[in-house]
Each structure stands twice: as C-alpha cells, then as structure tokens.
Specification:
The structure is a homodimer.
Chain A: H1 2-18, E1 23-26, H2 29-36, E2 48-53, E3 57-61, H3 66-72, E4 77-80, H4 87-94, E5 100-103, H5 110-119, E6 122-125, H6 135-156, H7 165-178, E7 182-183, E8 188-191, H8 215-234, E9 246-252, E10 254-256, E11 259-260, E12 263-269, H9 274-295, H10 302-315, E13 326-328, E14 335-339, E15 352-355, E16 358-361, E17 365-368, E18 371-376, E19 379-382, E20 393-394
Parallel strand pairs in A: 1-5, 3-4, 5-6, 12-20
Antiparallel strand pairs in A: 1-2, 2-3, 7-10, 8-9, 9-12, 10-11, 13-14, 15-18, 16-17, 18-19
Chain lengths: 395, 395
C-alpha cells in the first residue's frame, strides 16, 4: 500500500520541478485522501492541509486527529495545530525554504489565501490531476458499480403503488450498506413529473398518485383509488384506459473504499405512453452515439463527445441538455475529465467517466440514462451493467 | 413562511447600509438555505450563488435546478447560468450599480474571487450572522434533539457483545430515519481504546474484544470467549475478575427540517474501573462548571466558558482538551458562536450551542459528554435530554 503513496508523492515532486514550485499547499479533502490514504476529514469544514516540498511532507491537523494520523499516515510529518500552535507557526518555519508555493485556487478560500500570502509572497495555482486511474483504483470503482447493479436489481422489486420516493431512497441505502458500501451522494428518486427536475429533491411523493400528493393526503387517496381500480393499478400495462405509465427516475451511487460509482436508470411503472417511450429511445440512442464516437475516433476531445449527444437530442426536437453530458469519477463523484461544451480535455486510457444524456419536459417528466465507462485499449468498457435493456417495465 | 425571508433580507439590507456595501455575493450553501429556504444544493460542489443589493436579489444556478427554484424560491430572480450564459453575464449587467461588493471570504475560493474582481473592483469580507436563532429555529433544533434523545434510548438496547461500531451507527441512522429525520453528520461510534480518538472513524471494531479485532477475526474470537466465559461477559458488573468496563462513545446528531442537533454520550459496557469512572466524573463536572459559570455571569465571554472547563480538567491532572469546549449549531453542525480560547464572542439570548468537555488518554480510552443549550431569560436551557445520569452501565 505504501508504494502507491510513494509513487504519488514522486509524481507531485516531478510536477513541482516542471512548474518551478518549491512546494504545494493542499487543502482539498479528496487530494488529502489521495496522498495520505486517510479519508475521515470533514468535507464541509476545513480540518487538515498538506504541505509537500522536495524534502518535506507535512500534514497539518488538530488534536482530534492526532492519534489516528500518527497511526495511519506515518509517511507524513504531523504538525498539530492548536490555539497555542497555529498553522502560521509552520509557515514561519518554512518561509525561507519555500519561495514559490502552489495553492489550490479552486479550493482554498480567500481568507486562507490571505494568511498563506502573509508568509509566502509568490503563490501559483496548482491542480493535482487524478483523472487517469491506476488498475487498483479502477478495481475499486468497479466494485462500487457492481454493488450499484445489485442495488438496482433489488430496488426494482420494491417499486410498488403507495411507496414514497424517500422510502425507495432509504431502501436503496440500506441495501448498499448491507453490502458494505455507502451512498456516494444522496440518491435522487423522482416519480412522475418530478423526473423533469434533473436534480429533484427526493421527497414524500407517493407512487401511483399525482406527483404533488404527499404521504398524508396521498395514502388516503391511494386507498380510495385502489378500491376503485385495483386491477388497473396493479397491472396498468394491461389497461386500455389510456392511463400513462409512471416514470421512476433513480440516480444513485455507491462508495467503496473511498471510490465512487454513479448510475441513473429511468423505468416505467406501467406501460409507457408513446412520448415517454420516444424520450427513452432518444436518450439511449444519444448515449450510444457518444459511445460509438469515442470508439471510432482517435484523440477524442471530450467537448466533441458532449456535442455528438447534445446535437442528436436537439435534432429530435427535444430541449437542450441542461447539464454536461458526463463527468469523471473517482474519490469524488464529479472530477476530471468533464464531458461538456467548453472542456479542453482529451480522453485517455485509464480515465473513468459517466455518459448521461437526459431529456426533461417541464410538468411532464424526464428521462436520464447514465452509465460509467473506462477507456482500455482505446475502447470504452462499460462498468455499470444493470439491466442494459432499452426500457424496463415494472410489474 | 415568506415573512421570515422578508425579515432576513431586510436585515441583510440594513447590514449593507451600515457597512457601506452596494450588494453581497453569497456562496455558502447554509446561507443560501437561510435566505431562500431551498436546501438541495450540494455542500461539496458549487452549484449556486445569491446576489443581494438594495433593489435586487438574484439566485444564480444551472438548468438542473431551474424548475425547483422557480417553484420554491419565487422571492428571488433566477439567473440560469450555462455554457452560453456564464455567471459573468450577470456580473456585467450589474457592474455599474455595484461599486462595493461584499463577498464571503471564508467561503469563496481564490479562483471565484478572481472572476468576481474582474467586474467588481472593490470587495470586502462579509459574514452573515446566524448565531441568534428565532423561536421557530429553536423549535426545529429542539425537535432534532428530541429525536436524538429517542435514538439514544433505542441504541442502548442494541449495545451487545459482538456488535460492531458500524452496525451501531447504521442502527442509529435507521432509527432516526424512521422518525423522519436524518444524520446531521456521520456518527462517531468508538469502542474501547478507540474512544481516545476524539474524531474516531467508526469502523469494524467488535464490542467485547480487543479494539484491534475486526469482524473477521473478531467473531471467531468471540465465540471462543463466549464459550469460555459467557456469564462473565453477559453480566460483567457482577464479575470480581477485575475485567474493565468497556467504553462506548456515541457522538451523533439529527437533522430536522434543515436544523441540526449534536450530542455525545459515553457509556460503559460492564462496570467501569476506577479510572474510567473518575474520567467520567471530571468531564461531567467540567460541563457543570461551564453551565454554572454562564448562569452566574453577566455578559459572558465564550472564551471564558472554555477556560473554566479546560482549567478544571487540567487541575485534575488530565491532558489539555484537544478541541474547543463548544460550538454554535443551527443550519450547520458547527457555526457561531465558538466556545474556544481565542473566541471574541459574547453569549446572548437566542444562541444555541454545545458544551462538550472530553478527556482522552491514548491507548486507554476517552470520555466526552456533549449537550446542547440555548440561552433564555439569561439562563441556560439544556435541550438534549437523554439520560442525564452520571454514568450509564449497560446490561
């Protein structure tokens, strides 16, 4: 295990040399995890930093973490900051050997940077590139995907009239925990019209009722409806009443040994109407076109992949995709490369990213299909594998 | 509900006037929630901003949130940023009416600030003060505390030989979700020596075995031990073998309608030995001394409260408290006021904060007792109420 960190530190030091930096000041939690293996710092509050130079590597944190760091991060020297020994004390000690310091300008706050600059006059933006994964990292992401696949298979059986979005999200989480993983982000579960909101807040909407019903009113309504039309509700696909299939959009991911997966599936509860079916097919085809483009092109610009899928969706008369086509994934759910219109990145072997076209029609509903892929031998390998069929009809 | 946001915006505008700012640029998610009521933005990635001036209030976010924001935040004008319409477009539109802009220097990154400063030459640090809560906010925190109290009562019954820290944390979370709440942060569950690490990472340590056992080796060991000494293990308090009581430290909180609670309890599985008992009593007494100090003093400096408890612990020969004595709580688990050595804050009616003395002895164990309080009629009201007895012996 230590070899991995030695390699990463070596790479950083080569980077320092190229960029003519004497040291870097790392503040982002995912980079701290990447370089130390320690993943228990809060992502919402600042609890630690690293300073890495040619002949030094410090981890700066407080007394709450001292024992854990001494035990789990022996390859860094610990500077325990406290009210008596603020971080500035270390800055003072190092200011003579560090003339040019790299800082993570996309992570460090203005206030923190002011303090740093009091001691290190020249700072430059520094960005650690984690986009190309090692086989070991890919193995962990694959395991996270595998648990996600199982979770999807499990959750399909839980989608029933009367269940709420929140209940489905909770069942997903319980299942994933039972497999030893955890959610990599709060799941998005959207029923019916809610699926038109790409980042819908999973709530109390009840399946099988109008999307504005909440549990309290919904359950009463449900009993009444169920009594009136039990057969139609339990097997809507057989109905000839013209009742729409209900969209169920599930966007969730698993974290396994700090590495994330991410997947979206859109299923229909009941037989989809023509428009829903067409939206699904266009989204799926957009994903396929993006995949084919990558497989048939050398030196793939990620912005071009976005364009292929985006243009296809537009050509079918649907609204412009309101988000990027895809994103890299690893220690964070969203990291480089970005598959978006303004991205300058080239896709390379070892990268892991999502391709997730979507179509969202306000007050009607939305469809998103998201899978993760990695590039291997110049071809895409799909690593989320749950139900790769065109359209799932539950019950 | 809208009245609340009108008041908060009015307060901000008065603050602008006092500080001679033309507008503020809000980036922190908790402040966005505070001012809009919308709580679904990621805390790890930047998904939204607010700009508030005397005659304007914008919310800036992307197409993933458009529909939700239009519906749930009608009191703000929406600027939908995209690749075609970056945030800068709004900056350009506003640059003539905003000469001096407040920014959250403790939240905005260096890179973001650079972009802001391209358009607004003069920026000043701005900090929204949420430390004094309204009765409605306190009501929500109390409800979160109440669920936490019930969760503690429930979890005591689940603490059994053979259970892992992670299992206890999962059971706590399930219980809290069953009550309609959620964790306000990942719970810290620490068995035995692990409790000496104030922010221990809840793991696979098994109760009743050496703290370094993990499930795989642990369960086998457990069976052997249980066979050898079932009576002693199941009723250790009756044992005269001198076996130590096992420390179980539980630090967890509940989120209810976006408001957080936080509580730590240290219980003993089996009869505590004299040293454990003394640590518990000193921590409890330190908390009591802090409470008495607040109740008997006018214009309480929060740093002085920290000192009272800190000095008491030291006077008993224990190590210096390796963290602050307490912290404000509300939309975030940690917010103002801070009860710490360098704090300049004065405690006031309506504030809600923790008092959480702890004693941590490496390789032996730790005790922390944390309760939440609010100030009402110049006296502390304790709002976490679970098992206010000196020392709990489970089984």
């Amino acid at each position: 295990m230590w070899g991995m960190f030695v390699t990463r530190l070596k790479n950083i030091r080569e980077n320092l040399k190229e960029r003519k930096l004497d040291a870097v000041f790392i503040s982002s939690v995912s980079n701290i995890t990447y370089l130390t293996g320690y993943a228990n710092f809060s992502k919402e509050e600042r609890e630690a930093y690293l300073i890495i130079g040619n002949n030094l590597q410090y981890i700066i944190t407080d007394g709450r973490y001292t024992h854990a760091i001494k035990k789990q991060v022996p390859h860094f020297e610990l500077f325990e900051r406290s009210h008596q020994t603020p971080t500035e004390q270390l800055f003072k000690k190092l200011k003579n050997q560090i003339k040019i310091l790299g800082i993570e300008e996309d992570n460090l706050t203005v206030l923190e940077a002011k303090l740093v600059k009091k001691h290190f006059k020249t700072t430059k933006h520094f960005k650690l590139n984690r986009s190309i994964k090692t086989p070991d990292e890919i193995k962990k992401i694959k395991k996270a995907c595998k648990i996600g696949d199982l979770a999807f298979e499990y959750i399909l059986k839980q989608i029933k009239i009367g269940v709420t979005e929140k209940e489905i999200a909770n069942k997903l989480e319980d299942f994933i925990k039972g497999q030893g993983g955890e959610f990599s982000f709060p799941a998005i579960v959207a029923f019916g019209k809610n699926s038109a909101i790409p980042h819908h807040q999973t709530g109390q909407t009840v399946l099988g009722l109008s999307t504005h019903s909440t549990v309290a009113q919904g359950r009463t309504e449900l009993v009444e409806r169920a009594t009136r039309s039990a057969v139609r509700l339990s097997s809507p696909s057989k109905s000839r009443s013209g009742r729409e299939g209900l969209i169920v959009l599930l966007d969730f991911g698993v974290k396994w040994e700090n590495y994330c997966s991410d997947m979206t599936r859109t299923v229909f509860f009941g037989k989809p109407i023509r428009k829903q079916q067409e939206m699904y097919e266009v989204a799926l085809e957009a994903q396929k076109k993006a995949v084919d483009y990558i497989n048939s092109t050398k030196q793939v610009q990620s912005a071009d992949v976005d364009k292929v899928a985006r243009d296809y969706i537009k050509s079918k008369g649907y609204p412009n995709l309101p988000h990027s086509l895809g994103h890299g994934i690893g220690l964070e759910v969203h990291e480089h490369p970005s598959l978006s219109p303004k991205s300058k990145e080239v896709l390379k072997t070892g990268m892991v990213f999502s391709i997730e076209p979507g179509i969202y029609i306000p007050m009607f509903g939305g469809v998103r299909i998201e899978d993760l892929y990695t590039i291997r031998n110049e071809r895409l390998e799909q690593i989320t594998k749950a139900v790769p069929i065109a359209c799932t009809i539950v019950h």
